[in-house]
């Protein structure tokens, strides 16, 4: 899932020549209309550290809207740049849809000159400039009309051979993002689901990962007559199901099943039977990876234990015809699905593994904390990940992450979900290991607490603390873990009135612990 925006795409090398209009309108919310989901396949370039890298991709999700205002809108026109913006066009002759370019599709803060810098979608052609191959916008309004043909639920880009569409700066300089071929077909989201009368259970899947380690993952499974359903097979496709058929104790799923649309990273997701094969990394080294299998995925059902097991491998992936390792999201080998006894409990305390001091100087950097989270309680009960959060403490004060300070936050956040990461200021390396950055000096200590939160239930691990060595600000002492649990959490509004179920806003939270101590904090929900 490579839908990542690189910062400072546009701020460098901005010239005075403006081929496009100043302060343009970027469409982030088109008018209502007939919306069509599209499965697209493309070739082009993506920008990696300002170098253009050839890219081909299939299975990406895009939307097109035939608006009630008579216009046609196409989302994310460059597959390699996930802008969450739209271009506006119109119906032309026959099945043709035309977009008059340039159109602004991206903006960012101009860190050198102030204000905003914009990226524009153009039709572009290859040129040689300063001894280097690059692209420049076509000259003339007629040569900036982008055409697609919409026919038989298929959308095809029509562009002269050698040309591409790409994002350029205001001075016409190409940003290394481009697309040379494009085809998309209509494909709606998956609607397969158990009936209202089906027996549905929360399951806990024990499986072996690609490194040979045992892992657990929460899923759902259901029986509806002879139909068997598996759901919640990956983090971004909750609420979506695949269907198999039971004959006696054998449950058979097709070799490939459509799971649905992952709207978070904009792609289509599938579940397939897989076999262990080999991949090759950029250095030419081989590694084990799942590969498509033509055999069905077969489970054995143990009615007495209400469990499903398989000797095969279940692969969750993007694209129905491309099993590159970058398209594989999850691999479950030798999966065993048992009924999950979901019980609330305090998670095990976080483990803090590294600390980076905040440097407020102009050339300094943020503070950082590297840590590991556990999904288990002290009695080794696997906890529901959707109810797990963590808090950061700096010098004993609970940290609230402000949206105005953190690039990818839409609202202020105090309780950070285990699942949250933006790979910018909140890093997730694997299921357990994280790094978080902060813009505040810690004078004495940093701490972290893991929490199970479900409505009024709030169970804490106790705060794991690292004391900073004053003689060497880059070193830390051994962690000191406060072994206490939360016994009562009460919320009050700013007038001092107790609130049973706090909504969004500012509250006073009073936490009572098992050792009798209390903690009062101002929080933002």
Question: Keywords for this structure?
Answer:
single chain, 525 residues, mainly beta, 3 domains, eight-stranded antiparallel β-barrel, 39 strands, globular, disordered N terminus
What does the model show?
The protein has an eight-stranded antiparallel beta barrel with strand order 1-2-3-4-5-9-10-12. Strands 13-14-15-16-17-21-22-24 form an eight-stranded antiparallel barrel. By secondary structure, the chain is mainly β. It has three domains: 33-186, no CATH class; 199-339; 351-524, no CATH class. It contains no helices and 39 strands. The model is unreliable at 1-9, 11-18, 471-475 and 478-484 (pLDDT under 50).
In short:
This protein is an all-beta fold and 525 residues long. The protein has no helices and 39 strands.
Secondary-structure blueprint of this entry?
Layout: E1 33-48, E2 51-67, E3 72-75, E4 86-91, E5 96-100, E6 103-109, E7 116-129, E8 132-137, E9 145-151, E10 154-158, E11 164-168, E12 174-186, E13 199-208, E14 214-224, E15 227-231, E16 241-247, E17 250-253, E18 256-262, E19 267-280, E20 286-292, E21 297-302, E22 307-309, E23 313-318, E24 328-339, E25 351-356, E26 367-372, E27 388-394, E28 397-398, E29 416-417, E30 426-428, E31 433-438, E32 445-454, E33 457-460, E34 464-467, E35 480-481, E36 486-492, E37 498-499, E38 506-513, E39 518-524
The strand line-up of the biggest sheet is 1-2-3-4-5-9-10-12
Largest sheet: 8 strands, antiparallel, barrel
The total strand number stands at 39
Helix tally equals 0
